[in-house]
Amino acid sequence: MAKEERKRKHQDAAIGDGESKKVKKEKKEKKEKKEKKEKKDKKDKKEKKDKKDKEEKEEKKEKKEKKEKKEKKEKKEKKDAEPESHAKSVGAKVSSSKKSTVKYEQSEAINSYSQDKVDEFLKSNEIAIDDPENTGLKPILDFSHVDLDSRISKALEKYPTPTPIQAASWPFLLSGQDVVGVAETGSGKTLGFGVPAVNNFLRLGKQGLKILCVSPTRELAVQIYDNLVEVTKSTSVKCTVLYGGVPKYEQIENLKGANVVVATPGRLIDIINDGAINLGTVDYLVLDEADRMLEKGFEQDIKTIMQNTAGASRQTVMFTATWPKEVRELASSFMKNPVKVNIGNRDELVANKRIEQIVEVIEPYHKENKLLSLLRKYQSKNKNDKILIFALYKKEARRIESLLQRNSFHVAAIHGDLSQQQRTSALDAFKSGRSSLLLATDVAARGLDIPNVKIVINLTFPLTVEDYVHRIGRTGRAGQSGIAHTLFTEHEKHLSGALVNVLRGADQPVPEELLKFGGHTKKKTHSVYGAFYKDVDTTKTAKKIKFD
Ligand SMILES: Nc1ncnc2c1ncn2[C@@H]1O[C@H](COP(=O)(O)OP(=O)(O)OP(=O)(O)O)[C@@H](O)[C@H]1O
Known about the structure:
Low-confidence stretches: 12-18, 76-100, 522-548
CATH topology of the largest domain: Rossmann fold
Number of strands: 16
CATH class of the largest domain: Alpha Beta
CATH superfamily of the largest domain: P-loop containing nucleotide triphosphate hydrolases
Strand order of the largest sheet: 3-10-4-9-8-5-7-6
Bound molecules: adenosine-5'-triphosphate
Shape: elongated
Largest sheet: 8 strands, mixed
Helix content: 40-55%
Strand content: 5-15%
Radius of gyration: 39 Å
């Protein structure tokens, strides 16, 4: 039994030993497994972390790159939209980088003509081009030298060749650059700024209200509108006109779907204040008679209008026949690196040389009799010759109107005291020839293109010599000749020097009596310059306009 017991114990022990070895082994294995697992987990974790870090890094990098790309793109877009990034010369092919959409390619015909030919053309037409970006764009010598929309070309068929201001300014305007264009009265400036505006509108598939032309007087606004309607008549471009003195309602209705707006500043601002027009889409803004628009009477209005337009992406265009130094600084504050196209040395005040200028110095009290005798003289040559008489003040115009009527002259009159309807019908009567005499204040001095005005009589000298140049410019238009007969009195002697310069500049005789005033050259803009014909909409109520 004891032996049995021992054997069993031994066996038990043996089993026990065996078991503990197995357990130990198992434990060891377990431990190893655990350690292995931990190691693997750790490794996995590390790999995961590395991967995550890498991903995060890549994501960050990607984000950064994206951001940089976006910023770069935005910067480029902004730059492209800024008017100062003008066209750069690319050899024969010149295109503008100003707006990504604006491209002007100089035609093969232009590329092929030599610099000598260009110089000769510039010289013979007295064209000076100041091109601050050195784009090297050459003028066009023929309408076929620009790739105009065929519907616009059709509207130009009646003209043989571009006028010098059109020839020299179109390449710059078509390439999207800001332009100051200064050229004599009656030299086609309206189509000068109008054709490129409409052509780019069509070519670039623009939509909405894009073109705004601002003019100082109602009659001129209507005339510009008529010109643009003529140019766009075969297209779907819609033009409309806003001016004071007539009800607003219909004008506001006409704004629906308009692509081109021509406006006088007062009515335009009135309609802006009504919230009936949004100029934010306008990217081509013209100031016609730009020096007048920048004078004191309009300055604030123009600032408001500018602030309402598309800003940096706006192409700003200023055209005029006179460009006094006094307005140039203000002009440049609205423009970016403008190209200056100057026809006929217009850095100085120059009158149209085809106008014969006669200046008579007389006593103020002789003026009315002198006028009557001048009218008889000129009408005896040809009763139907159109004669435009300028007075300075509305009161004077009224007095002269009755003087002429008393003396059996059939005269139409246009001045600020008349209703718009009266003004319009007087102008129509003169244009159509129903009345061969028109008596006007300076409301008719600028821009009006009345066919066949043969004689301009200045009964009273205007407030500035610039206005004199514009007044006499109602004759001698589009290559024709004309006569300007001016009565000059001691009341205007402070302007004698400037007038002498204008006469000399146009190779006209200078009367001895004019020189006796001492050749003053004081050329100060009158503080109320233009106040006599600022179109004020009397129907509108005053509204406070806030500026930044
Ligand atoms: N290429 C052209 N060839 C001949 N005549 C033209 C040409 N372009 C325009 N005209 C005509 O010339 C006349 C004068 O043009 P417009 O009224 O535009 O002159 P302007 O230079 O604006 O004058 P202002 O300084 O007095 O405003 C218009 O009757 C117009 O039809």
